[in-house]
Amino acid sequence: MSRARTTREGLARLSVNQETVRQLSLAELARGAAELGIGGVGLWREPVRAHGPAAAARLMRRHGLAVTSLCRGGFFTAREPAARRAALDDNRAALDEAAELGTGVLVLVPGGLPEGERDLAAARERVADALAELVPAARERGVRLALEPLHPMYAADRCVVSTLGQALDLAGRFPAEEVGVVVDAYHLWWDERVPRQLARAGAQHRIALLQLADWVTPLPAGVLLGRGQLGDGAIDLRAFRAWTEAAGYRGPVEVEIFNPALWERDGTQVLRETAARYLRHVL
Amino acid sequence: MSRARTTREGLARLSVNQETVRQLSLAELARGAAELGIGGVGLWREPVRAHGPAAAARLMRRHGLAVTSLCRGGFFTAREPAARRAALDDNRAALDEAAELGTGVLVLVPGGLPEGERDLAAARERVADALAELVPAARERGVRLALEPLHPMYAADRCVVSTLGQALDLAGRFPAEEVGVVVDAYHLWWDERVPRQLARAGAQHRIALLQLADWVTPLPAGVLLGRGQLGDGAIDLRAFRAWTEAAGYRGPVEVEIFNPALWERDGTQVLRETAARYLRHVL
Questions:
Q1: Which residues form a coiled coil (chains A, B) (predicted)?
Q2: Which residues of A touch B (CB under 8 A)?
């Protein structure tokens, strides 16, 4: 097999999450990704709504790109009924958008502890309650709810689900067709139980998406925008590919890096760098 | 029992780690803590060395204060032989200082991944190797090596031991008299396995020290100096006291808060506030 052909086949599985190159418009992202032979993109609700979900779907299809995920729903840990109802309504809207966009995966970040609360177990239970309410809508639309465990540093303010094990415990209460998990190396790399849990996730067909970013320090204030380009940090990214493949996952590998230093650069150049890093550090 | 008596007995178990009020000299800390009826202090190597360990020991004894820990040894994950030897020598010096200071607990922060390495399992194994080398020295000096699992957000640059379970797995290879664990709520609060692991730790007599600080967001850049005063954050601190007591732990409750906002205030006032918060949110 020629080197060029290997490269092209390798990139077919790569998806670039829009936030990695947020300086690009949807059209620029589609053209840039397609030109490099990247297979898919992960999109965010705000820009998709601005473009129109159906038009965004057509744009990606025209460039031969899969939409590997819509980010994101979730944030449904509120206890107060009105806030809870509003969150569920918003998640139903996100399911509509995902269906119109033609993606089978709605990424869910469950949300943190409501102000003044300290009961993580109760908040996690409310995540299960929210999933139960959303499952019928997900089934109708043919979109999978993909629960994402976030790094424990977000447990208070963004995501009370901190490990793959917790996410699988929650997802396991529902059919795998409707509720899966997102495996993001950035959030899970420190946890020695991950290989075992990925085997469990694979056996249950729960892996909805593999996402990658590297772990670099020092973390910035707020710890949201400090993700590293593939290969720049501490994570054994290749191991995540190997573990998920061993678990039977053959889906997209989506690179999602939140980093202002990447946003300041030429977006097409960042796309090219990301593809090269993927070939070098993941494949 | 009178309210005043309850308060005084309650504070006897409280220890204030020096870094909580680093604006105070050792003499000011000793006087301030003793006046409030606080039972102990946790000290750091640099100021202890500057004061002289024996003189520091006399000062605390004169004020009726226990020295509940010396912070800290560890940082022995280097692979390179010279760096590794230097780290072990430094830890032996820390054991000497702890013995002279009259504390039975040397807190160990194991260290992160060496530059360019990505193998967490191998680095954790080097922690076990270092413990094996230090155990005889600890035994001779009557000082316990107290392995501290740090929050997973420090896994790359400070501590490859991220959970109480990992710390217990490592400590369990050595006699409990010589190797224990530090249970710091700030690092462990997000982990639902902690109550179970504390029961295991208690059954093995591994709990060398309970430390408390609260979790507040947003985290500052570098994520080192963002700990909250007791009661200001997301952690159920009382649960940590209850779990450790259920596990048979009757030792000190050391409050260790790294927060520049506390350092800017009058240190004696911060001591008083800490004692009041302890009575309200922990007892």
A1: none
A2: 113, 117-121, 124, 151-153, 155-157, 162-163, 166, 189-192, 215, 217-223, 233-236
Q: Is A227:A186 a contact under the CB 8 Å cutoff? A: yes
Q: What are the distances in angstroms from CA B36 to CA B28, B32, B200, B270?
A: 12, 7, 35, 12
Strands A214-215 and A227-228: antiparallel
* pLDDT tens-place string over residues B86-98: 999 999 999 999 9
C-alpha triplet B160, B146, A193: angle, nearest 5°:
35
> Are B43 and B69 within 8 A, CB to CB?
yes
> CB burial class (10 A; 0-12, 13-18, 19+) of residue A272?
middle
Number of domains in chain B: 1
Q: What is the pLDDT of residues B181-224, one digit of tens each?
A: 999 999 999 999 999 999 999 999 999 999 999 999 999 999 99
Q: Do B152 and A191 touch (CB under 8 A)?
A: yes
Residue % of chain A over a pLDDT of 90: 96
ipTM over 0.90: yes
**Phi and psi at residue B15, in whole multiples of 5°?**
-125, 145
The pLDDT, as a whole number, for residue A8 is: 64
Contacts of B162 in chain A (CB under 8 A): 190-191
Closest Cα in chain B to A236: B118
Q: How far apart (Å, rounded) are the C-alpha atoms in residues B140 and A280?
A: 51
Which residues in chain B have Cβ-Cβ distances shorter than 8 Å to A218? 157, 221-223
pLDDT in tens, B60-77: 999 999 999 999 999 999
Question: Which residue, A68, A53, A8, A61, is CA-closest to A30?
Answer: A61
CATH number where B89 lies: 3.20.20.150
- DSSP per-residue letters across A161-184: --SHHHHHHHHTTS-TTTEEEEEE
Coil, strand or helix: which one is B10?
helix
* Bridge partners, B220 (sequence order): none
Q: What pLDDT is attached to residue B10?
A: 86
Distance to chain A for B133, nearest Cα, Å: 25
SS3 B156: coil
A119 min Cα distance to partner chain B (Å)? 7
Domain that holds residue A275: 3-281
Query: Which residues of chain B lie closer than 8 angstroms to A155, CB-CB?
Result: 189-190, 215, 234
Confidence grade of residue A1 (pLDDT, cut at 50, 70, 90): very low
Whether the per-residue pLDDT at A4 is higher than 90: the answer is no
Best of A192, A241, A243, A281 to mutate (most B CBs within 10 Å, chain B): A192
Closest Cα in chain A to B124: A192
SS3 B212: strand
Helix (H/G/I), strand (E/B), else coil: A57? helix
CB B113 within 8 A of CB B126: no
